[in-house]
Amino acid sequence: MDDLSSFERSVSAALLQAGCDTFTASDLQRHTREVRDDIYADELAHGGDIASPFVNFIITHDVAIFTIFDDPFLVYVIPCTEREMISDTDAFAMFEVPEHIELLANKYGRSAPDATISRSLAETWLG
Fold first, then answer.
1. What CA–CA distance (Å, rounded) separates 84 from 6?
2. What is the dihedral of CA 46, 87, 100, 104, to 10 degrees?
3. How far apart (Å, rounded) are the C-alpha atoms in residues 79 and 85?
4. Angle at 58 between CA 13 and CA 33, to 5 degrees
5. Distances (CA, A) of 14 to 25, 35, 97, 98
6. What torsion do the CA atoms of 3, 38, 91, 85 make, to the nearest 10 degrees?
7. Are the CB atoms for 121 and 7 separated by under 8 Å?
8. How far is CA 25 from CA 17, 78, 104, in A?
9. d(C-alpha 43, C-alpha 64), whole Å
10. Who contacts 94 (Cβ-Cβ below 8 Å, separation ≥6)?
11. pLDDT per residue over 20-29, tens digit each?
12. Contact, 75 vs 4, CB < 8 A?
């Protein structure tokens, strides 16, 4: 995807397809911005690099929404229970991006994300 409107449409469609009709792309945008800001502040406070890839996910209405801060920026929408996803990801640190992607592919059959965009456009989307 090369523009923000296509990215948002893809995110919205994935959320609806997963049965998540009360949590919108705008909600994801707001939540992701808050997480990104916290991670960036922590990285800067401890001499880290804000360009380092990391994973975040939120679970709502039995749907996990993964955001992977890398280039490209990836979004996966996975129907699952909160207990199941927490159990599946408990052993991974948020900076273990390949491990998360492998889990999504192997256990949940998601070899490709639901939406992608360059990290620089993702930063614009997040504001």
1. 31
2. -160
3. 10
4. 85
5. 10, 21, 21, 22
6. -60
7. yes
8. 13, 15, 20
9. 25
10. 39, 54, 55, 56
11. 989 999 999 9
12. no
Number of domains into which the chain is organized: 1
Which pLDDT belongs to residue 2? 64
Q: Measured between alpha carbons, how far is 10 from 115 in angstroms, rounded to an integer?
A: 6
pLDDT tops 80 at residue 1: no
| pLDDT above 80 (res 123) | yes
| Residue 38 and residue 56 in contact, taking contact as beta carbons nearer than 8 Å | no
| b/e map 82-91, b = 16+ CB within 10 Å | eeebeebbee
Q: Which domain holds residue 47?
A: 1-126
Residue in the block written with tokens 């994801």: 28
What totals of helices (H) and strands (E) does the chain contain, helices first?
5, 4
